[in-house]
Amino acid sequence: MKIMLVYPKFETHIITPPLGLGYLAATLLKEGHEVILLDCVLKNIDIEKFRQILKNEKPDVVGVNAMTTYYSSAKKYVTEAKKQGITTVMGGPHSTALPKETLEDSGADFILIGEAEKSFPNLLNSLEKKKNLMSVKGICFKKNNKIIMTPEEDLIQNLDELPLPSWNMMNPNDYPIAPHGAFLKRFPCAPIITTRGCSFNCTFCASKCTWRQKLRFRDPKKVVDEIEMLNKKFGVKEFHFEDDNFTLKREHALEVCKEIIRRKLDIVWACPNGVRIDRLDEELLKWMKKSGCYLLAFGLESGDQKILNTATKNLDLSQVSKALRMVKKIGIQTWGFFILGLPGETMESALKTIKFARNNEFDRAQFCIFTPLPGSEIFEKWTIDKKNLNWNDFNFFNIVYTDKLSEEQLRKLHKRAFREFYLRPKIFFNLLRDLKLKQIKWLAKRAFDYKIFKK
Description:
The protein has 455 residues and is of the alpha/beta class. The protein has two domains: 2-149, Rossmann fold (3-Layer(aba) Sandwich), CATH 3.40.50; 171-449, Alpha-Beta Horseshoe (pyruvate-formate lyase- activating enzyme). Helices cover 39% and strands 16% of the residues. Helix 1 (19-30) crosses helix 6 and helix 9 packs parallel to helix 10. The protein is globular and about 60 Å long. It starts with a strand and ends in a 6-residue tail after the last helix. The mean pLDDT is 93.
């Protein structure tokens, strides 16, 4: 069958290869399907252009990826494919968290729940051979006007059985210098994963909905095989580990570092998706630095221990300052992630967070406004009418949820956090020092769009 995988166009400042679709494309190719991967963000493909592409390519099935932050955009691509009589499939975190609601609202023919590398090929096989769809695990669809959900598909236990992502379909050289945070040391850059999943239970996080709190690891040698291939074939010089928990299993992270060094690869790398700051030690950090690591991000969320405890973050703030000094001593840059407006947040606790970010050894900081993501514990307990939610607002900078703070207070705190952190001479000039000329427009656009420095 001819399958078109679509990463929909939406407003974003992060333009990077869609790794999940890359894995899915490779899996479908291995199963003998013809695959087109359409990155509409990179290629600026709006609905008008998409309409013409569909007419030219005539795919049998269109699969659209959807996170909550761009679900509204994804839905438009499903609608257009349906207009042309094409079978439509929607997958991703949003679909996994709200399969029935997404089926009804999007008009898609099928919803994939969880990891799609098993369920999508099985669905296509059943459609092609007109088999009973009830035998396909991990899907949601309508039959006789009734919504059917089949039993969930098992998680992929051995990640090394998956083929490498279809890098030929998302060449890193085609992408601009606009990854996480708009910062890079070297270019081209490629995202990579060494693990899938997270074993923690933070109430604000939706990852457990997809990964079921199971953490799985790739063979470190196979990880570095992929790094070496990307380096030699595509000239990739920087890698971003997108794992939720790269350093959780010390031996795994250590072996990845040692393997990079053994092969004498001339690369640098970072963990912009965050690592557990309480799972680092000096020896591991030295190996990370030696193998090319220059930046670690830390999801600390709050500078108030009570807020963290309420969110079941399982992090002791008293350990953070010492750990940050250790990271800086080794020569690795630090990036703190914080969330303003978590349940229980007060003016006092929010100001504690801003002060904590300012008074610790962070080179950069990101402050988001709390967004209750479908699949998270907080979303499930959120006592509002969820049928009329405007998903366009779910982007970590708009306000869709408030607890003890008003919307106006939260907006002012958000802008204050950025101003107090970045408008300090040392931080500001170090920021300019690390920026390349090609990156300035991406950072400026982000600050302008989010009105960060506007009082």
